[in-house]
Amino acid sequence: MIHSTAMISLNLFIMLTGCEPAPGPAPRRVEPGAPSSPNCPRWRVPNNRWDIQTPPACFMEEGYDVGQIAPDMRMTDQHGDTVSLWQFYGSVVVIDLYAMWSLPAVQATREGERSPDALMEQHEGLTVLTLITERAYGYGADADDLRDWANTLSQAAPVVSDDERHHTHFITDHIYPKTLLIDRNMQFIDVDVQDLPQALDVLLAR
């Protein structure tokens, strides 16, 4: 009864004065990468020298299988900075998995057009990461290993260490190299690429 009386009084006030109640606060604009719920954590923007494209708000990882959105792998590059896989959202991403002990073989056999720098120069919208999974003895490449790899091969493109050991989802037999291919939406397209030039031609044409 009190509620009904209050509503009648409010309506009568509006009719007599022609005034509407003050509007409530405007809806909050959600910026890309900002949380919209407790289950939607904010994407942590890394600080490094590579291009950064913020992923959509509430972007969620799915797994490591073909067709799934890749986790936001956090890696350390040859400059000692943290690199986020998701910072390359909007680009096609190639991840070459190597062990540090394979450097001499790579140096002896790599063709110029297959180098990360050459691929990124040839294909607009492509990022190539060289992910070093193992040292010569034991796991975990350190900063010296990454710099040694980049300097030996005169590589400017990112050389990163697998701080969170994501490679264990792809390397189970210590056989290298292995190449992963991720599309512009961070979705795994292939986790063991055999013909990279053909795969890139198809994916970059989409």
Jot down its keywords.
206 residues; alpha/beta; seven-stranded mixed β-sheet; 7 strands; 17% strand; globular; disordered N terminus
Provide an overview of this structure.
With 206 residues, the chain is α/β, with parallel strands linked by helices. The protein starts with a helix and ends with a helix. It has a 7-stranded mixed sheet with strand order 2-1-5-4-3-6-7, with helices on one face. The longest helix is centred in the N-terminal third of the chain and has 16 residues, at 2-17. It is built from 5 helices and 7 strands.
For the termini, the CA-CA separation is 64 Å
Class inferred from helices and paired strands: alpha/beta
Strand order of the largest sheet: 2-1-5-4-3-6-7
Number of strands: 7
Helix content estimate: 10-25%
Shape type: globular
Q: If you average the pLDDT, what whole number results?
A: 84
Count of alpha and pi helical runs:
5
Low-confidence spans: pLDDT under 50, at least 5 residues? 1-17, 19-36
Q: What composes the largest sheet?
A: 7 strands, mixed
As an assembly, this protein is single chain
- Element string (H = helix, E = strand): HEEEHHEHEEEH
Radius of gyration: 25 Å
Question: Approximately what portion of the residues adopt beta-strand conformation?
Answer: 15-25%
